[in-house]
Design brief:
It contains nine helices and 15 strands. An eight-stranded parallel beta barrel has the order 1-2-5-7-10-11-12-13, surrounded by eight helices. Strands 6-9-8 form a three-stranded antiparallel sheet, with no helix packed on it. Strand 12, helix 7 and strand 13 form a beta-alpha-beta unit. By secondary structure, it is an alpha/beta fold. It has a single domain, classed as Alpha-Beta Barrel (TIM Barrel).
Length: about 290
């Protein structure tokens, strides 16, 4: 059995401190939680950033830069995975759905990948979904995905392909066939988001069956499905993800005190089921990343 790569999604864009007051918000807090997650066995940390004053999701380069610099200056070995998801949301105005409401953040591929091009993490996400999600439409057109992918590869970064439904995987096949996406590919199967893949054994088996051959993949479940789907991903031979982007409870009625606790429990589940965690060095070899 190959080692299992455990990723930690430390803050995301949906969770708030009303959900859990220990959610990391400032660049220092986010970086510290990445280090804590790595100390508990995470080989990868998936990173969004927030406005330190409001706690709201942000796309400011200076916040990404501070988080990345803090992690790189620490003594911990960790694979950094920056998001490119922000900038893909369109919210229609109530009186004229053709006009964007103030909450819309739809912007260009260049803006959505600017921090990746400049900071050059080892991995970044590339969303393949177009769907209704959290009160707005997430729009990732094939044209924009192609433009984002070109910039990501040119920066020497490996895209992690986020797939929320079967059509996203069909699109991935098309983009691999036309040369937009390169093999070996890395997929992240997302379950538990409304109108996407429903969480469950049958869903994950189906999603896995659609993936290209010789693909590395991971999967996770949102909210209360986080730990059950982590175990399911492991049992099906996939890699795993946990973190406060996806879940804020350590157990029923027990909120976690930070990402480190979630990672520690996830590591225990994987080890109890007979697995072993991949170190960052092993994860780089598995994912065909350059050695550090």
């Amino acid at each position: 059995m190959n080692p299992t790569i455990l990723s930690c999604a430390v803050t995301g864009s949906h969770t708030t401190r009303e959900h859990n007051p220990t959610l990391p918000v400032t660049p220092e807090e986010i970086a510290n939680d990445c280090v804590a997650a790595a100390q508990q066995g995470a080989a990868i940390c998936h990173i969004h950033v927030r406005d330190p004053d409001t706690g709201k999701p942000s796309m400011k380069f200076e916040y990404y830069e501070e988080v990345v610099e803090r992690i790189r200056q620490s003594s911990i070995d960790l694979i950094i995975n920056l998001t490119t998801g922000p900038g893909g949301r369109f919210v229609p105005s109530a009186d004229n759905p053709a006009v964007a409401a103030p909450e819309s953040q739809l912007t260009t591929p260049e803006i959505r990948t600017d921090h990746v091009v400049r900071l050059k993490p080892e991995i970044c996400t590339l969303d393949l979904n177009t769907m209704w999600f959290g009160g707005g439409a997430v729009i990732n057109s094939p044209q924009n995905i192609r433009a984002m992918a070109a910039r990501i590869y040119a920066a020497g970064v490996k895209p992690e392909l986020e797939v929320f439904d079967s059509g996203d995987i069909q699109l991935a096949h098309e983009l691999i066939n036309d040369g937009t996406l390169r093999k070996p590919a890395l997929f992240q199967i997302v379950t538990g988001v409304s109108y996407g893949f429903a969480p469950g054994t049958e869903t994950m088996i189906y999603a896995k069956s659609l993936l290209p051959a010789n693909t590395q993949w991971a999967a996770f479940g949102a909210s209360r499905w986080a730990f059950p789907m982590l175990a399911q991903a492991f049992l099906l031979g996939g890699h795993c993800r946990i973190g406060m982007e996806d879940a804020v409870y350590l157990d029923k009625g027990v909120k976690c005190k930070g990402n480190g606790e979630l990672v520690a429990k996830a590591a225990t589940i994987i080890k109890t089921l007979g697995g072993q965690l991949a170190s960052p060095e092993q994860a780089r070899a598995i994912l065909d990343l350059p050695a550090v």
